[in-house]
Amino acid sequence: MDIEALRTSALAFVEAHKAWTPLIAGGLAFCESVAVLSLFVPATVILVGIGALVGGADIPFWPVVLGAAFGAALGDWLSYEVGHWLGPGAKTKWPLRRYPELTAKAEAFIGRWGIAAVALGRFFGPARALVPLLAGILGLSRLPFQVANVASALVWAFVLLAPGAGLLTWLDR
Fold this sequence. Notes:
By secondary structure, the protein is mainly alpha-helical. It has helices spanning 3-16, 21-33, 43-56, 61-86, 100-113, 116-121, 127-137, 142-172. It has 8 helices and no strands. It is elongated, with a radius of gyration of 17 Å. It starts with a helix and ends with a helix.
């Protein structure tokens, strides 16, 4: 199954089961935020499409944003905890050992920006799932990590879903 077919079937499912949209958005955002799993699930494209469905199919906007934010925060939290549990030795294991330059860049990014890297990283494709994992590996404190994680998840979900929802609503006027 190609990515276009996956996107089309996911959006058709959401349109047919509107009441489940917040849960679906949460599940997709979770998959997009978990290290390694994010490589296999093209969730960003589907979430942008869900934003358009929210605007055009009379689906309440805020529950979908909260569902996506919860899923994204949960995925980052899981990645952080896995990194914390594995420790520095994780850099010698798959998949990090296959991408030493990307891992070094993400580590430098965290070194430069500190906990703000968690919030900033959410908005950059490959960094989205890698930064929380490395934050755990590097031992960043849990409470500041979670504050940055949850705050950025809320902003990320809004930014991802609002254009489609707002644009279609505005065009209907």
